[in-house]
Design goal:
Chain lengths: 663, 509
C-alpha cells in the first residue's frame, strides 16, 4: 500500500463505518454497528500511530499530497489534499485515540438507547470530519472539516430530539458557531484576495510579503492588512473553541449524551480553533495586534469561565466551564506566540478532560441520569475505579507536579510571564489566578461526588421517574466497557506530559509546522532552563502556581469536607457576585434581547410592513384593482375557463412556429 | 452521433409534441398518461445527456446551431444554439422533467393527462428559452412557458390560486413588456433579431441604459430581486408541489440566464455604469429577505423567501465583475463571481426542488403547510427526516453540499470587489442557518406534535427515489464541482472579455 492510500484510509475508514452504521442500521443491528464503527476508528488509530512512528523513528518527511482537484475557477486551484507534518500527526493520533476510547465507552453508556446505531454513525462521522480538518493542506478543506464537525456536533447535542432543551441547545450551538464561521469565511476570502491561493504552503511562503500593507475599511481608520486577516480567522476560532463572547453554546451542549461531551465538547472539536491558529502561525506571527487580541480574549475566558464553574451544581456543567477555562489557557498561549505550548496543553487536556467527562458519565449512569451534584456524595465506595480515575483526571487538570497537565499548564504560565506583548500582564494574572480557581472547583466536584455521605436515598419502589435525590437501585461500578476506557485514558493523563514535554516543547518537534519569529520566542528562556521533566517538576514546587493550587485544594477541602455551611455563608454574604456567576454574567439574556428577539422583530416588520404593506398593498394590489376594473368591461367576450385560453394560446404558438416548416 | 442531429429541436419539440399527444388520451386512462409522460421525459433526459457528451467545452462558440428563416418578412429566424451557460441549465431542466413526473405519479388523481401534458410542454418551452438565439423566438418561449404554469396553479392550486395567478401574471407581464419594447427597438436599429449580432452592435451609453433597464424589468421580476419579489411566495404557496418545484428549480434561473444572455453582453457599458444598483439590490435581497424568511409560519413561504435570498447571490456574482476589474490586475476574481453565480443557480435548483418536494411529502399526508401543525416528524418518519435535514443543511450552505459551492465562490469574489460586499453577503451564513434550522427544529425534531403526526408514515419507495436522486446530486456537486464549472470556463472568459470592451466608442459617443 502506498503512503497516499494509507493516508486516505485514515479518514475514509471512519466515514465508511458511519455510512454502514447509519444507512444499514437495520441490517447490521446494534452489535454490528458498534463493531463496524470501532473497527473503522480503531484501524484509523493504528494507521495514525504508524505514521507517527514513521515520523519519529524513521524520519519521514513532511508530506504534502493532493488527492483531487475540487475545482478550478478564476485561475484559482481549489484542491483537496493532505499536509502531514508533526502537528497533523499528533492531532490525528490524539483524535483517533480519544475517539476509539469513546466508541468503546459508548457500548456501555448507550446500551439501552433506541438510537444506538445512529449514535455510532454520528461519532464515526465526527471522526472523519475532524480528521479531514486536521489533515487538510488548504483553507477550503479546513473550512469543510470545520463546518462538518459543527454539523455532527449539532446532530449529537440534539441527539435526544424529543427533548426541547436538547434541540434548542443544538440549534444554539450551530448558530453561534456560524457567527464565528462568518468571520472565518471572511478571513479565508481575505487570504485568497491577498495571496491568490488557498494552499497553506503557498500562502505561508508569501505571507511576509504583505507585511506593512494597510487597508481602510472604515473611513479614518487604517489597519494592517495582516491584522484584518488574522482577526477574521480568529473569530472563527472563537466560535469553535468557545472563547468569550462566543462561548455561550458550550455549556448548553452538555444536553447531548456524555460520550460526545467528552469527545467533541472537550477533547477534540473545541480544540479545532486552537489547532487552526497554531497552523496559521506564519500569519499570526506577523501581527502583534492580532496576537494581543487573541491573548486577551483567552485571558478573559480562562479566568471568567473558571469562576462560573465554582457555582455550578450540574456535574457536567462544572466540567464544561472548566473546559472553557482551559481553552482560554490555550488561547492565551497562542497569543503570546507559544503555539507549541498551546498544542501541548491541547493534547494533555484531551486525555484528562475526556477522562473526567467519561468519569462523570459513569457516575451519571450509576445514579440513573442524575447530574446534580447536590444529590450525589460518597460514591467512592461503590465506584472505586471511577473514583480513582477521577482523582487522576483532577490532579492532571489542576497541574499537580509530574502529572500531564502540570507540564503543559506550567509551560503556558511560564511563557506568559516571559512575554512582553501588549497586555501580557493582564494575561499573566488571569492564568495565575486561574490556577487557584481550577484547583478549587475541581476538588469541589471531587468531594461533592465521591466523598462525604450520600445525599441520595435508594427506594426500590420509586417508579420510573423518581424525584431528585431518590434512585431506584443502589449505584454500582460501571461495566468494563466503561471502566477500561477510563483506565486507558488515565495512563496518558499521568505520563504523557512527562514523556513528551522535551520533544514537543523544547526540541523543536513541531517546528516543521509552527513558525515563531525570534523576538517572539517566549519559550526560549524555558528551553534554556529545561533540564528534564523531573528537574522541572521539582523546581515548580514552591513557585506561585504551586502554592495557588495548594490554596485551592485547602480551601475546597476545608469547605466541602469539613464546613459545608461555609459555602452557603458566602452565598448569602456575596449575593451580587453569586447571582452574577450563577447567571453566567447574563450573556444569554443579553443575546436573547439584542439579537434573537430583535431579528424576529426586524423580520416581522419587513414582512408585514414593507412586503405586505408597501409593496403588495400599495403597488401591486393598486394596479391589480385597475386591471380588475378593466377586465370587468371586456369579460363579455370570454368563456371564463382559463385552460381554454391557455391551450388555445399554445396551439397558436405552435401554429406560428409551424410556418417555418411549411414555408 | 448527436452532432448531426437537430438535438436542440428534439429537446424542445419532443416534450411539447409528447405533451400534446398525452392530451389526446382520455380522462379515463390516467395510467397510460403517466407512463407516456415518464417515457417521454426519460427520453428527453437521455437526449440531453447525448448533448452533454457531444458538447465541446473548450470554446465559447455556440454549439449544435440550427438556423432557418421563420418569418422572413421581419428577418425572424428559428435560430438555436447552446454554450457553456445554457448547457447546464438545459440539463437541469430535463433532469427535473423526469423528477416531477415521478413526484406527481399517484399524488395527482384528477385530470392526470392535462397535468402531465402541462409539465412536458413547459419543459420543452423552457429548453427553448435556454437555447434560443433569436430574440423574438426567445421572447415567444419566454412568454409561452408561463401559460402551463398559470394552468398548473389555476387548476391544481390552493384556495387563493386566483389571487396568486393574477399577481404572477401582472408582475411578469409588466416586466416582459418593457423587455419587448427594448427588443423591438434593437430590431429596428440593427435590422436583425439575432442575439449574437446584437452583442456586437454598437450603442450609445444613453441607449444602453434604457435597454438595460428594460431587461432589468423583465429579469429582476423573474429571478426575482427585491422589491419585485412578492409574487413568488404567493405563487409557491398556491402551486401544487410539482409546480413549485419547476418554478423554483428552473423558472427563476431564466432570470439569471437573461442577465447573462442579454443585459451583460448587449448593454455592457450600462451594466458597468449601473452595477452599483444591481449590487445594492442583490445585497438587500440577501439580507432583507433572510430576515423575512426567519419569521415565516408557512413552510412553502419560508422556502420561497429563502429562494429569493439565494438568488441574490446570482445577481451579486454576475455584477461584481466590474468592480473586480477596477480593483485587481487581471480581474480573475470576476470569473469566480460569474461561475459562482452559475453554480448557485444549478445548486439552488437541486436544493429548492428537493425542499419543495419535502414539503410536498408532508402536505400529501397532513394537508397542511403550517409549521405549527408539525413537530417531532423524525419520530415517525426517520428516513424523511434524514433527507430533510440534509437538504436544509445544504440550503444553509454546508460545505460538502452544493449549497456551499456557489455562495463560497461569490463571497470570495465579492471580497475582491469590496470588503463590505463580502461582509453583507456572508451574513447569509448566519441568517440561512437560522431560518433553515429553526424550521427543522420545529418540524422535524421535538416531541411528537399531534396525533396526526404520530400516525404519519415514512416515505415510500417512489418518494425515496426522488429525494435520494436529489441527495446524490446535492452531494456530488458539493464534493466535486469541477465537471460543472469546466463546462463554462470558455463561455465565461469570452463574456468577461466582451464586457470589458466599451461599445459606445464604436457608436461614436
Amino acid at each position: 500500500m502506498s503512503l497516499k492510500t494509507i493516508l486516505l484510509l485514515i479518514p475514509l475508514l471512519p466515514l465508511a463505518a458511519a455510512a454502514i452504521a447509519g444507512l444499514l442500521r437495520k441490517q447490521v443491528g446494534r452489535a454490528g454497528s458498534h463493531w463496524v464503527a470501532i473497527l473503522g476508528v480503531g484501524v484509523s488509530f493504528l494507521l495514525s500511530a504508524w505514521v507517527l512512528y514513521q515520523q519519529i523513528f524513521l524520519g519521514m518527511e513532511t508530506q504534502n499530497i493532493t488527492i483531487y482537484t475540487w475545482m478550478i475557477s478564476g485561475g484559482v486551484h481549489f484542491e483537496v489534499g493532505f499536509l502531514i507534518d508533526h502537528l497533523t500527526t499528533l492531532m490525528m493520533t490524539v483524535v483517533t485515540f480519544v475517539s476509539l476510547m469513546v466508541h468503546i465507552y459508548t457500548i456501555g453508556y448507550m446500551a439501552t438507547d433506541p438510537g444506538y446505531q445512529r449514535f455510532f454513525s454520528y461519532i464515526a462521522l465526527f471522526t472523519f470530519s475532524m480528521l479531514m480538518l486536521v489533515m487538510s493542506n488548504n483553507f477550503m478543506q479546513l473550512f469543510f472539516g470545520w463546518e462538518a464537525v459543527g454539523l455532527v456536533s449539532y446532530l449529537l447535542i440534539g441527539f435526544w430530539f424529543d427533548r426541547e432543551s436538547a434541540i434548542y441547545a443544538g440549534l444554539k450551538a450551530f448558530l453561534v458557531n456560524r457567527v464565528g464561521d462568518f468571520g472565518f469565511l471572511l478571513g479565508i476570502a481575505a487570504v485568497l484576495y491577498s495571496f491568490g491561493s488557498l494552499d497553506y504552503a503557498t500562502v505561508f511562503a508569501a505571507a511576509p510579503g504583505i507585511a506593512g500593507k494597510t487597508v481602510t475599511l472604515i473611513p479614518g481608520m487604517e489597519w494592517q492588512w495582516i491584522t484584518v486577516i488574522c482577526i477574521c480567522l480568529f473569530i472563527g476560532a472563537m466560535g469553535k473553541s468557545a472563547q468569550a463572547p462566543l462561548h455561550v453554546w458550550l455549556p448548553d451542549s452538555m444536553e447531548g449524551p456524555t460520550p460526545i461531551s467528552a469527545l467533541i465538547h472537550a477533547a477534540t472539536m473545541v480544540t479545532a480553533g486552537i489547532f487552526m491558529v497554531a497552523r496559521m502561525s506564519p500569519l499570526f506571527e506577523l501581527s502583534d495586534a492580532a496576537l494581543s487580541f487573541v491573548m486577551l480574549i483567552g485571558a478573559v475566558t480562562a479566568l471568567g469561565m473558571g469562576l462560573v464553574g465554582i457555582v455550578q451544581n450540574d456535574i457536567k456543567r462544572v466540567i464544561a466551564y472548566s473546559t472553557l477555562s482551559q481553552l482560554g489557557y490555550m488561547t492565551v498561549a497562542l497569543g503570546v506566540s507559544a503555539y507549541s505550548a498551546a498544542i501541548f496543553h491541547l493534547m494533555t487536556h484531551a486525555f484528562f478532560k475526556a477522562l473526567l467527562f467519561l468519569g462523570a458519565g459513569s457516575v451519571i449512569i450509576a445514579l440513573h441520569h442524575q447530574q446534580d451534584m447536590r444529590y450525589m456524595g460518597g460514591l467512592r465506595k461503590q465506584m472505586p475505579i471511577t473514583w480513582i480515575t477521577a482523582w487522576v483526571g483532577t490532579l492532571a487538570l489542576i497541574g499537580f507536579p509530574f502529572m500531564s497537565g502540570f507540564y503543559s499548564k506550567d509551560s503556558i504560565i511560564e511563557a506568559v510571564a516571559e512575554s512582553s506583548r501588549w497586555g501580557s500582564e493582564v494575561a499573566y494574572w488571569s492564568v495565575l489566578l486561574g490556577v487557584l480557581i481550577t484547583s478549587f472547583y475541581s476538588f469541589r466536584l471531587l468531594y461533592l461526588t465521591f466523598h462525604g455521605q450520600p445525599r441520595y436515598r435508594v427506594d426500590v419502589g420509586a417508579g420510573e421517574h423518581p424525584p431528585d435525590g431518590v434512585v431506584q437501585h443502589a449505584p454500582h461500578e460501571s461495566p468494563w466497557v466503561v471502566t477500561v476506557p477510563l483506565i486507558l485514558l488515565a495512563i496518558p493523563s499521568i505520563v504523557i506530559g512527562y514523556l513528551l514535554i522535551g520533544p514537543v516543547l523544547f526540541e523543536g518537534w513541531l517546528s516543521d509546522a509552527i513558525s515563531v519569529l525570534p523576538h517572539n520566542n517566549v519559550l526560549e528562556h524555558a528551553a534554556e532552563n529545561f533540564h528534564g521533566p523531573v528537574a522541572m517538576a521539582k523546581h515548580a514546587i514552591g513557585t506561585a502556581p504551586f502554592w495557588l493550587m495548594i490554596t485551592g485544594f485547602v480551601l475546597a477541602t476545608f469547605i466541602y469536607q469539613f464546613r459545608p455551611a461555609l459555602a452557603d455563608f458566602f452565598k448569602q454574604k456575596l449575593p451580587g457576585i453569586y447571582r452574577l456567576l450563577e447567571n453566567k454574567y447574563y450573556f444569554d439574556e443579553l443575546y436573547q434581547k439584542l439579537f434573537i428577539s430583535r431579528s424576529v422583530r426586524i423580520g416581522r416588520g419587513l414582512w408585514k410592513k414593507v412586503d405586505a404593506g408597501v409593496i403588495d398593498g400599495g403597488l401591486v394590489n393598486g394596479s391589480a384593482r385597475l386591471m380588475g376594473n378593466l377586465a370587468a368591461r371586456i369579460r363579455v367576450w370570454q368563456s371564463g375557463y382559463l385552460f381554454h385560453y391557455a391551450f388555445a394560446m399554445i396551439a397558436g404558438l405552435i401554429g406560428i412556429l409551424a410556418i417555418w416548416v411549411v414555408l | 452521433m448527436a452532432s448531426n442531429w437537430p438535438i436542440l429541436s428534439i429537446l424542445i419539440w419532443l416534450p411539447i409534441l409528447g405533451g400534446l399527444a398525452i392530451l389526446t388520451v382520455g380522462n379515463q386512462r390516467a395510467p397510460l398518461a403517466r407512463v407516456m409522460a415518464l417515457v417521454i421525459s426519460i427520453l428527453v433526459f437521455v437526449f440531453s445527456i447525448f448533448m452533454l457528451m457531444a458538447f465541446d467545452p473548450s470554446t465559447a462558440a455556440m454549439k449544435f446551431s440550427e438556423l432557418s428563416p421563420w418569418i422572413a418578412a421581419f428577418n425572424v429566424n428559428y435560430h438555436l444554439g447552446v454554450d457553456g451557460f445554457s448547457v447546464p441549465l438545459i440539463l437541469l431542466t430535463t433532469f427535473f422533467g423526469v423528477l416531477v413526473v415521478i413526484a406527481g405519479w399517484e399524488v395527482i388523481q384528477e385530470r392526470v393527462q392535462q397535468y402531465m401534458a402541462a409539465f412536458l410542454i413547459m419543459e420543452g418551452l423552457m429548453v427553448g428559452v435556454f437555447s434560443a438565439l433569436d430574440a423574438l423566438l426567445f421572447y415567444v418561449f419566454f412568454e409561452a412557458m408561463l401559460i402551463p404554469m398559470f394552468l398548473l396553479i389555476g387548476m391544481w392550486g390552493g384556495p387563493r390560486r386566483v389571487y396568486a395567478t393574477i399577481k404572477f401574471f401582472l408582475y411578469t407581464f409588466l416586466g416582459s413588456v418593457f423587455m419587448l419594447i427594448g427588443l423591438i427597438y434593437l430590431y429596428i436599429q440593427s435590422g436583425t433579431w439575432s442575439i449574437l449580432e446584437w452583442q456586437d452592435f454598437p450603442l450609445t451609453l444613453e441607449v444602453q441604459k434604457w435597454l438595460f433597464l428594460g431587461f432589468l424589468a423583465a429579469f429582476s421580476v423573474k429571478i426575482p430581486m427585491w422589491p419585485v419579489h412578492t409574487w413568488l411566495p404567493d405563487a409557491h404557496v398556491e402551486a401544487p408541489t410539482g409546480g413549485s418545484v419547476i418554478l423554483a428549480a428552473i423558472m427563476l434561473k431564466i432570470g439569471g440566464y437573461g442577465f447573462i444572455r442579454f443585459s451583460l453582453p448587449i448593454t455592457p457599458d450600462a451594466a458597468a455604469a449601473l452595477d452599483w444598483l444591481i449590487i445594492a439590490l442583490s445585497l438587500i435581497t440577501v439580507v432583507y429577505i433572510g430576515f423575512v424568511a426567519l419569521v415565516q409560519e408557512d413552510m412553502k413561504k419560508l422556502i420561497a423567501y429563502s429562494s429569493i435570498s439565494h438568488m441574490g447571490f446570482v445577481t451579486l456574482g454576475l455584477f461584481i465583475a466590474f468592480a473586480i476589474f477596477q480593483n485587481s490586475d487581471g480581474g480573475e476574481g470576476a470569473a469566480l463571481g460569474v461561475e459562482g453565480a452559475m453554480v448557485q443557480m444549478i445548486s439552488h435548483g437541486f436544493i429548492s426542488g428537493a425542499l419543495f418536494l419535502c414539503v410536498g411529502v408532508l402536505y400529501d399526508r397532513l394537508h397542511s403547510r403550517m409549521i405549527v401543525d408539525y413537530g417531532g416528524v423524525a419520530h415517525t418518519m426517520p428516513w424523511f427526516a434524514a433527507f430533510a435535514v440534509l437538504f436544509f443543511m445544504a440550503n444553509s450552505g454546508l460545505p460538502g453540499t452544493s449549497g456551499f459551492v456557489g455562495e463560497f465562490m461569490v463571497i470570495l469574489a465579492a471580497f475582491q470587489a469590496n470588503f463590505w460586499y463580502a461582509f453583507l453577503a456572508s451574513l447569509t451564513l448566519i441568517l440561512g442557518a437560522a431560518y433553515s434550522l429553526w424550521l427543522v427544529k420545529r418540524v422535524i425534531f421535538g416531541p411528537v406534535g399531534s396525533k396526526k403526526v404520530a400516525k404519519l408514515e415514512d416515505i415510500n419507495a417512489r418518494e425515496a427515489l426522488v429525494l435520494g436522486t436529489l441527495a446524490v446530486a446535492v452531494l456530488l456537486l458539493g464534493l466535486w464541482p469541477e465537471p460543472l464549472v469546466n463546462l463554462m470556463h470558455a463561455s465565461v472568459d469570452q463574456l468577461l472579455a466582451h464586457i470589458q470592451q466599451p461599445k459606445f466608442t464604436m457608436a461614436g459617443n
